Every structure is written in structure tokens, then in C-alpha cells.
Amino acid sequence: MDPKALAFLAAGLGAGMSVIGAGVGIGKLAASALEAAGRQPEASGKLQTMMIIAAALIEGVALFAEVISLLLAIK
Amino acid sequence: MSNLSEVKIQQNVGIAQTQSSNLQVTQTKSVNLKDTTQSHSEAKQEEGNVISDILQEHLLDHHSYNFFNVFHIDLPIILYDKQLYLYPSVKSMMAEGTFTEIHHQIVRKDTQQPPKLDMSVTALVMFQWLSILLLLFVFITSAKKYKKQPKAAPKGLQNMLEVMVLYIRDEIVRPNISSKRLADVLSPYFVALFFFILVMNLFGLIPGGHSATGNLAVTAGLAIIAYFVINGSAVLHVGFSHWLKEFTGGAPWWIWIIMIPIEILSMFTKPFALTIRLFANMTAGHVIIFSLLGLIFMLHTFAIVPISIGFSLFIYVLELLVAFIQAYVFTILTAVFVGLTTAEHSLEH
What we know:
The complex is a heterodimer of chains A (75) and B (349).
Chain A: H1 3-39, H2 44-74
Chain B: H1 2-17, H2 22-38, H3 40-59, E1 64-67, E2 71-74, E3 77-80, E4 84-87, H4 90-96, E5 99-102, E6 105-108, E7 117-118, H5 123-148, H6 156-176, H7 180-203, H8 216-238, H9 240-245, H10 256-299, H11 305-342
Antiparallel strand pairs in B: 1-2, 3-4, 3-7, 5-6
Helix pairs in contact in B: 1-2, 3-10, 5-7, 6-7, 7-11, 8-10, 8-11, 10-11
């Protein structure tokens, strides 16, 4: 196969697979945060802040993967 | 498309010039039509290139600002290469002849090398200045109101600002930074950081505007300031020796071989992650909106228009949310990092 085609394939697959990981991560995070807020509604404000911080960290890792995929695709 | 218009022009010219030679006109027409069918796939390829060119034009930085061809501002070029060069626009720089522009990059004509220092006022710098001016205007007018009537209840814009500033102080800075004195010293920095990022993000959502935070250099600059605030406040607050001791993490000496490199690395990955997060979030929204609108031109059908417009409107509203969330996330993560480096670990060990 053409190496250029392989690079594009790798970029697409890499972008998609990193999104799967981030999706699972943020989904689990939101699920447990909602559960915790349901158990203890008075702590929901604090939980929201912590949830956003954790979500931002997960998203950051996913974005690194996306940037690498983008570099593969436009190089 | 261009071939078709050529046919029309040739037809008109043919009719006007020689009314009798209809034969010739039809001949050229048929030849051109044949060309059109042959180059149809090429034209499609070209349209894809045009869309990606427009996208790059929108995302990259420029030495001039063009508002929908209604008005055009030439921005000054300031270069330093052994001596200072000042030009009012790219055109005058090209006319002078020392430098030339190749693929959006300024290079020396004789050596083909970029200048040592490029301090030009570009479109994104202009938008940063615009957001600074807007913030100065908004905050100075509301500060004057406080001075005039310190007891009166805030109204309108002042009211909105008070809510946001108090939120940043009470929900972002104070809970994360344990020392109250340090929290109060750093509050103005966090308020400025939040509003500056927010306004820059929102400028990208106005038609004709660019979001300066969609550029790596801008977000890296913000993150470098955050790096100095994080480590500077740690050194000033807990002392240099304590700051150095943090690298060992209070672990036994034989773990230091692993601990110290990891801690030093994490000192630099924090601002790096801040840089990439803000940049990627802002760029991704613009790219998605452009790709959705580009579908119309790629698929050559009106059926896709409602879908494209609907989805890009949805993404636009999402972008509005993302502009706020990313400003908030940048601010709160900086606050968390300051809190981590300045925390007193006396209770832990």
C-alpha cells in the first residue's frame, strides 16, 4: 500500500480511537458524579467543580492524541 | 465553473463582434463543453482546495485585516535583522525590496532566511488589543460607578461583572489556594486571565472576527505567564528550599531517581497541557463549522443546505458554551496548580 494512504489511515484511526477513550472516560466520570450528586444533593456545587477539572484533564489527553493525528494528516 | 463562464463570455463577444459567424461560436462552444466534462473531476478537486484554503486563511495569522471586502486595514510590519525595519504594509515591504513574502512567511530576499525577530502587529495582535480595550472600557466605567456611589446597589453591566468577579474570587481562587493572603494577592490575576480569555474566545464568534486563542503562540504566551505565576508564587510563599524539597515528594532517597525527573517534567507539562487544551478547543470549533459549510460546495446540492446550516448553528451555540468553559477551565486549573505548589504539607507527613 502507498505509505501516504497508510498515514491518512493511521490519522483517522488514531483520531477515532482516542475519542473512544475520552468518551468512555468522561462518561464514567459523569455517571459517578451524577450518582454522587443524587446521593448528596447539597454537595453538587463542589462535585461540579471537581467534575469539570477531571473532565478537562481527560479531554487534555484526548486532545494530545487529536493533535498528533492532525499532524499525521496534514504532513 | 470557470469554463462555463468562459463559454458565455465567448458567446457574447462572438455575437457582438461578428453577427454572421454563428458557426464559429457554436464550434467554440462545443469544444469548451468537451473540456468541461473532462475537467469536471479536476474542478471538484480544486473546490476542495479552495475550501481548505479559506479555512487556512481564517485560522492563520495575517499582516492585514480584511472585513468581508468592505474595508481593509494594513497592519504595520516590524522586523529586526541586524537593524530595525519598519513598514506600514506588506505592499510597501515588497516595494522596498529587502524582504519578500513567500507562503505567508516573510523572508530576506538575498538569503531566503526569515528575519531574526518578527514583532509585526498582526491581525491576532489587533484582536488581542481590541479585547484589552474592550475590557478596560467595561471595567473602568463600572469602577467609576463604584467610586461615585459606593453604597448604591449595582445595576446593569456593573451587576453582571460583580457576579462574575465574585464567582471567580469565591469559587475558583479561594477554595483552591489555601493561604488567604496569597489568594487575595492573586485574585486580580485570575480575574484578568478569565476575562481576557473569554473575550478573545468570543471575538472569534462575531462575523469577521478572529479568536486569538485559536493560535498556539497566544495560548503559549498565556501558559508561560501561568507557569511563572505557579512557580513564582510557590517560591515566594513557601520559600525556595521548600519549593526544591517538593521535587522529592517526601519519599525515601532511593525513589528520588524516579521522582525528581517526573516532578521536573510535570512542572513543564502543566503549562503545555494548558496551551494545547485552549488552542485545540478553539480551533476545533472553527474547523467543524467550516467543514459543515464546505459540504454544500463539495456535494453541489441544495438538499444538504438545511442540514449544514442546522448543524453549524448547533456547533456555533456549543462554541458559545465552550468559550465560557475553556476560560473557566484555564483559570481554575491555574488556580489548582498554584494551590498544589503552595500547599503546606505539614499534615501529610
